[in-house]
Design a protein that fits this description.
about 290 residues, 15 strands, NAD(P)-binding domain-containing protein, NAD(P)-bd_dom_sf, 7-stranded parallel beta sheet, NAD, Rossmann fold, alpha/beta, two-stranded parallel sheet
């Protein structure tokens, strides 16, 4: 399709197993903005294709991709799945026809703020060469921004049955500080933020080449995460032993500029509120702790 209207775009979502932007959330969010959207999900393997079809996403293997271009493209695959991550992102940019918007999901790991200090969109990022982890992301970001696409830096992602809380609950001992902060955003809110950026760029409210930050703005300590889960009927597990009393505290993240520019507000205001409300979302139905001893 060489052109599109706002009501009937074709959206290309490039993802891999374990992708930060769930196809379920992406489809749900894009449907609310683009009711007649056709969403294609490109993956490295066909493991998730049956599930993608059940969500209304048309799956396609990366090896089967042609030279067709799309007005809206979201690249959401972690660096761990590629030897040359920047090259993967540059290849994805070729699927974009330059008309609607291109969104690349990055990470808040690129911010170089000092431990324990507040961090937002204005916080300096690492310079190339200072952090190998940040380097991979920053090089990919640079390619997207140079092409006129947008970057959404995501805090730690979670949903009812996936995220740091699930790891903490099943791990007896962790070499980390119990009071260390974890910055979070629900998968559904992350997807909604990405779609809001697509829409904003399409409507001209953003000009492309911009960076956004997606976080709920309510950091929680590791200990608090586990405590609220154990107080809920939704989770089983135990409080791990946190063995680093003097370990890093982490940054305290917020995103006032992103919220103002996009008008975006997370549905799940914080991890604690999400759990206290029953830890229910579109990924898994409500469940209760096992009563078996």
């Amino acid at each position: 399709m060489s052109s599109c209207t706002f009501a009937t775009p074709r959206v290309e979502v490039i993802r891999s197993r374990g992708s930060p932007l769930s196809a379920r959330a992406a489809r749900s969010s894009s449907s609310s903005k683009f009711p007649a959207a056709s969403v294609i999900g490109q993956t490295n393997t066909d493991t998730s294709h049956e599930r993608l079809l059940s969500l209304g996403v048309f799956p396609r293997l990366k090896e089967k991709a042609g030279d067709e271009q799309y007005p809206f493209v979201v690249f959401s695959a972690p660096p761990s799945g590629s030897e040359d991550y920047a090259a993967e992102v540059e290849a994805a940019l070729k699927y974009w026809d330059g008309s609607g918007a291109f969104v690349f999901t990055s990470s808040t790991a690129v911010y170089a703020g000092k431990d324990g200090e507040p961090c937002d969109e204005s916080t300096p990022q690492f310079e190339i060469g200072e952090s190998p982890r940040a380097d991979r992301l920053l090089k990919a970001e640079a390619a997207v921004l140079a092409a006129g696409g947008s970057v959404v830096r995501l805090a730690g992602l979670y949903h009812s049955q996936r995220g740091a809380h699930m790891y903490f609950l099943k791990t007896p001992s962790l070499a980390s500080n119990a009071d260390g902060l974890v910055n979070l955003i629900h998968y559904e809110d992350a997807a909604a933020a990405c779609v809001d950026v697509l829409v904003a760029q399409f409507e001209g409210r953003t000009g492309g080449g911009e960076v956004f930050l997606a976080t709920d703005g309510v950091p929680v300590t590791r200990k608090e995460m586990v405590e609220c889960c154990l107080e809920s009927d939704a989770y089983d597990g135990n409080m791990p032993e946190f063995t680093e009393d003097n370990g890093p505290l982490g940054k305290s993240m917020n995103n006032p500029q992103t919220r103002e520019k996009l008008g975006w507000v997370p549905v799940h205001a914080s991890f604690v509120e999400f759990v206290e409300a029953g830890a229910t979302d579109s990924f898994y139905p409500k469940r209760r702790k096992s009563t078996w001893k």
